[in-house]
């Protein structure tokens, strides 16, 4: 069962910085304008490490590692005096305006290869992204942001709420999500959390590239140390109990560019989907939910519902996510480029900005479907799920040698 261990966290010294100025979203949701805005907030914003830039005579990975060490030496970052877990809460409002809270525990989770343990990925990864994160991990020798895992064990939420007292760190992000952190060091509580997580599988919900990176790095360290991988056999993870309301999963839509001029995309998709005109883009997600369909966007007022056709020989097993259904259809199209957007306004802007650009809207995947897929040893296509809200990078770091 999964090892989940306490660790001595590295955190910003709040006497030296304002936490709101130095934390950031995960690297993979930061666009170029976002990066500039984060850099402007503080010379110590974590984006200067997580998405470091090349410097004179120094590549960005070396620059990131050097900066992390410099901040430690200068006391901008400080290491907590003893190992512990960290309770993490995110308070937010859902699309209906209801107040919700996600409660989990930050700790050091075991890194295992697929099929060799009970830490279970559900989504495929991209080699280019893995290489980038691996080079950063080698340079910094630290986990900068956590993966997000869902534990099938009962009682973790209650344990995460047992620390009490004032949080040791708190901030509010750009979307109004409140992030709070507590240190959990009481021996009995630490032991209970570790035992609870170890009692059932953990499904990697978000952060698959970081997990794949940690696995590759662990194997590198083992190869160089006669099979031992001290520190590299664990990674920073936020583990939450798999219960309703603990995570909101949003879809990641596909933007298709570069198809030949005059190409009839609706006709090309007909072997896989039954198309029907759908009207205005703003109402398309609601119509998709009613019809059990994907959505095709060719313009702000030119949209279609795409009702999946039954695949030959399809049985009554776990239904495929929209991303898998669409991948099969896109595979037969002429050469094109594919990008990913999770916001409807970004999809609209992409389609209207360039002639011939199309987008396919996907429906969200249910959290329990994600868990069933992982337990069955299957994976969904890359960029299938977008978990919201996102844990903030910079609340706590984990040094591999710590």
Rounded Rg? 22 Å
Number of domains: 2
Q: How many strand elements?
A: 21
Low-confidence stretches: none
Outline, from the CA principal axes? globular
Number of helices: 13
Mean pLDDT score? 91
Strand content: 25-35%
Description:
It is a single chain. It contains 13 helices and 21 strands. It is an alpha+beta fold and 402 residues long. The protein folds into two domains: 4-249 and 386-399, no CATH class; 253-361, no CATH class. The strands form five sheets. Strands 1, 4, 5, 6, 8, 9, 10, 11 and 12 form a nine-stranded mixed sheet that branches. A six-stranded antiparallel sheet has the order 15-17-16-19-14-18, with helices on both faces. Strands 2-3 form a two-stranded antiparallel ribbon. The protein is globular and about 65 Å long.
Which properties best describe this structure?
single chain, 402 residues, alpha+beta, 2 domains, 9-stranded mixed β-sheet
